[in-house]
Each structure stands twice: as C-alpha cells, then as structure tokens.
Amino acid sequence: MSDNLPNPAPAPTSQHYLDQQFWDHCAQGVLAFQCCLECGTWRHVPRYMCAHCGSPAWGWRESSGRGTVYSWTVCHMPMSPEFETVFPYAVLVVEMEEELRMAAGLTGLDYRELELGMPMEVEFKPLRSGGKLPFFRPVAR
Length: 141
Ligand SMILES: [Zn+2]
Prior knowledge:
The protein contains one helix and eight strands, in the order αββββββββ. It has one helix at 16-27; strands at residues 32-36, 42-43, 58-62, 66-75, 89-96, 101-106, 119-126, 132-138.
C-alpha cells in the first residue's frame, strides 16, 4: 500500500451546486451530509429531494465521520496519470452511522487487512490543488 496522495481535484457532477457544497465542507475538514428537514433521513450523494418522503426541504448536518466497511474494491491499474504513484489502492464503501453509504479511499491500513464490518473513521488529507479529500482509516481498537 502506498500512502502517497494522488492529486485529482473533485469534479462536480451535473448537480454542481449541491456537490460543491459537499466539497466546501470537506475543504473545512468537516464531513457533512444532507438531512431531510421533514423526516430526518440523511442522504448521500447530494440531491434536491428526499428519497424517503419527497420533501425538498433539507439542510447540511455534520456526520460523526464513523461507520463500518460495507464493501471495497482494489484498483491494480491507474485509471489516470494522477494515480500512477499510488496503485494498487483500495476504495471503500462505508456504512455510516447516519445509515447512508459513502465511498472513499483507504488510508492507514494495508488493503489486504480489510474486513467486512471493520470500524472506520474519516480522515481528511490536503490536496496539492487546495481543498481536502476524505479517506477512511481504521478506528483504533
Ligand atoms: Zn424526508
């Protein structure tokens, strides 16, 4: 495992406005997700309406930053030149305490030691281009 960081800047999708708010929180070292103001359901990735109740009313709330490993994949080939110094690397899907799932890279552990259900917590790392990128590291046992 390499802990050298790639430097791709997050690229907002078609819902640019909402994605940018997520990345703005990350740049402050805060993991925040949308939360429905009607039913309290958390959601990720950002979107305009609640998938549970259909409400368009939402706000950002800070996550605990903790969850457990739901799944992962290991990339053995760099998908772009920015990743040539870091592969192989693992990308995790973590079931967050807020009952949503989030994908991010692994740090602080060799991917061969990953286990389903392993407790994880978010760690932000600075991008050379500015901002911060969330990763997951194992919670100290
Ligand atoms: Zn709702």
